[in-house]
Amino acid sequence: MSTPMLEVRGADVYYGASQILFNLDLTVEKGQTMALLGRNGAGKSTTFKAIAGLVPPRRGEVRLSGETVSGRAPYRIARAGIGYVPEDRQVFPEHSVEDNLIVAMKRGRRGEAYWTLTRIYEVFPILAGMRTRHAGRLSGGEQQMLTIARALMGNPDVLLLDEPSEGLAPIIVQAIGGLIRTLRGMGVTILLAEQNMHFCLDIATHATVVDKGQVVYRAPVAELRGNTAITQRYLAV
Ligand SMILES: Nc1ncnc2c1ncn2[C@@H]1O[C@H](COP(=O)(O)OP(=O)(O)OP(=O)(O)O)[C@@H](O)[C@H]1O
């Protein structure tokens, strides 16, 4: 098997004296859309912060295409190819949609420039229609699309999306879901954290379930769908 795109190996992660993740292992292969599922407080966001270098693991490591990136500063991890979209949609509110995209523009680590403004507008036509609008004027769903588009402008090898459906109306959640499916169809490698299992089942190819900071299940999504013992016990559905 080829080297995984993203690996977390044996990660112990703490906030101060509290241990939040315990010996956590996670693997995302190239082209997969991996759902990271678990209840509120299970450790999904902390896993993302550990990967992005905001809360580095005290033990264990994070590897991107086989290269250890944990221990580096967050901006260096981003530059290495990890595009992180945190839960709180951070846009520059006083700047236009297009300026928000342009400041994030960067070649990938092998010099790739697949994601350009033109391609972003093809995949996100809604942003094309509001390119001169101040980002602060966008709705929550539009801002979510903009933050995903901004992360892509950095030509990452893997895209981390932390609860992209959170707090959005069902019709917008559907639109975000459709967008992630489009990215999946384009071969983008995605790690998607979600509390909403139904949202994930339609989008992801694989699932990893965490509970109390530990991985309790991993399988292709089709298997999770049929596993009511797991979904009832860990996902409260
Ligand atoms: N900055 C922090 N300091 C201390 N504890 C924290 C901090 N952030 C989160 N925690 C705790 O870490 C645990 C895991 O939180 P985390 O945010 O990773 O969960 P989650 O699965 O992403 O859930 P949510 O959907 O609520 O974001 C929780 O018990 C939470 O209270």
From TrEMBL:
Species of origin: Methylobacterium frigidaeris
InterPro entries per the UniProt record, alphabetical: AAA+_ATPase, ABC_transporter-like_ATP-bd, ABC_transporter-like_CS, BCAA_Transport_ATP-bd_LivF, P-loop_NTPase
CDD domains per the UniProt record, alphabetical: ABC_TM1139_LivF_branched
Annotated ranges, domain ABC transporter: 6-237
Name of the protein described by the UniProt record: High-affinity branched-chain amino acid transport ATP-binding protein LivF
Coiled coil segments of this chain: none
Record-linked SMART domains: AAA (SM00382)
GO biological process: L-amino acid transport
Similarity-based family: Belongs to the ABC transporter superfamily.
Gene Ontology molecular function: any one: ATP hydrolysis activity
Keyword Cell division: no
One Pfam match: ABC_tran
UniProt entry keywords in alphabetical sequence: Amino-acid transport, ATP-binding, Nucleotide-binding, Transport
